[in-house]
Amino acid sequence: MSAFIAANMAPLMFATLVVFLLLGYPVAFALAALGLSFGFLGVELGLLTPALYGALPERLFGIMSNDTLLAVPFFTFMGLILERSGMAEDLLDTIGQLFGPVRGGLAYAVVLVGALLAATTGVVAASVISMGLISLPIMLRYGYDRRLATGVIAASGTLAQIIPPSLVLIVLADQLGRSVGDMYAGAIFPGLVLTALYVSYVFGRTLIYPQSGPALPPEARTLRGWRLGARVLFVLIPPLALIFLVLGTIFLGIATPTEGGAMGATGALALALINRRLSWSLLKQAMNSTAKLTSFVVFILVGATVFSLTFRGVNGDLWVEHLLTDLPGGAIGFLIVVNVLVFLLAFFLDFFELAFIIVPLLAPVADKLGVDLIWFGVLLGVNMQTSFMHPPFGFALFYLRSVAPTQEYMDKLSRKVIAPVTTGQIYWGAVPFVVIQVIMVGILIGFPQLVTGNLEKSKVDPSKVQIIIPQEGQPEDESAPPDFGAPGQEGETPAPESSERESADDLQKEFGKK
Hints:
The chain has helices at 2-7, 9-22, 27-44, 56-64, 71-83, 87-98, 105-118, 124-141, 146-157, 167-176, 180-208, 225-251, 257-274, 280-313, 316-325, 330-345, 351-357, 359-368, 373-384, 395-403, 423-446, 449-452, 504-513, and strands spanning 409-410, 417-418.
């Protein structure tokens, strides 16, 4: 028995983790407990040495001092403040008036406002709850199909996961060892394409079934002509300014993602103050929620670090690498299997858990197969987006369920009795958008340039870079350009020309004359 456990420690660890997660144990504590338990077992079996766990405190301190993860509380705080600043309400009201005469106009407005909120908040919960509270009663009032209404609200809210400044992109960049700025640049175009697919679905649905998304009646369209245009321009200025303050400064190289998040949080406070929504109770609530989410992320990361230390100590990373590199089809086979695996795990795990448990195991294999890690990260981000929409455990569905009416009520404007929204309607409304997200995964696999085309390519081949260390007694030519080597001449360094240098004595004499 001991021999069997020693020979199969890595697969046993992974299988036990899956069982614990399916039983509903908290992820952070399950990871840490299994890491320590199998660690003690490995020491007893002679597979590990106790000295291995001397590195654990240093790893945990490295989590606390990680500058990249500092962006998480900033963007979370910004999203929570914006949720209550009145910006989402103004956007939905005005853009809904703009698209009011069109069939499905309110659904178009929800998708576009969801994209704008995604580019300003970066938090799924804030987007879904805001649009659920504001737009769902209006869509029910004017006879929208409940599956279309709930599906488009939940799906548009999840755009905050793939459109920068997304929290999941920050975590993926950290786990893949890549720049957050590059991850943001690579995700912009896929996010816009996904938004266009949502709009196309609404167009097709209302074209085939006109009654599923009727146009607003004339009495509901209170703004027309130049007044509508002026108000649209007025409500678009604050979010666009905030988008530039956050993303523009990051892409221009003026600020790091953490600094951009700090400026975004400051801008969100300014917007709330301008709209007269800023209060001590709002600040207290936003800071409490930010502290809870940040602690949640850190605890999962600490548990994942403990688990991965033992898992790598028993060569679990090599087991995963051999398992995935031997798949038929090479890189394409690897991508198909990985995306199917992530899609299935998203039924039970949220994106933080997937990012901290699965991504560190997949990244080395992807890198070995020659897969661009920025593209791989964006691809996983789109796939993990389905974790918010999967019935029955999708968090976006839970957020929408918490604000959707559960009992009959009388609409204040139309004086009609509105029936409640059932959980089944929310779940079935999400299914078409999950299919769209899966299609988007296939588009990214087929057209990787959607991501890589936005990245700046370095003209320097890192494999040819040589660091020349002068030997003792050999003069160092500081004026010579760095030698990046050439094919067939690695290791050869041209000798500096003495005629182009001035001696120290000549320089001293020259300065002495002055």
